[in-house]
Amino acid sequence: MQYYVYIVRCNDGTLYTGITTDLKRRLYEHNHSDRGAKYTKVRRPVSLVYEEICQDRSSASKREYAIKQFSRKEKLLLIQ
Length: 80
Hints:
By secondary structure, the chain is α+β, with helices and mostly antiparallel strands.
């Protein structure tokens, strides 16, 4: 199964990083449902600004962790 590591920009300008198997569904959840992350629920709407394909959950989780260690400046460079 293919996984995605993604970054969304929240309404307040902050960035949220996550993983999913279905970007469209996950973005909908972040913006419209109670299944979205607690962090993004109070910062709606969010918009997708970065996505990266990973071959499995393990590699996606490792990449997500690595990106979460980046500074904001490094994340913005990655997005560009």
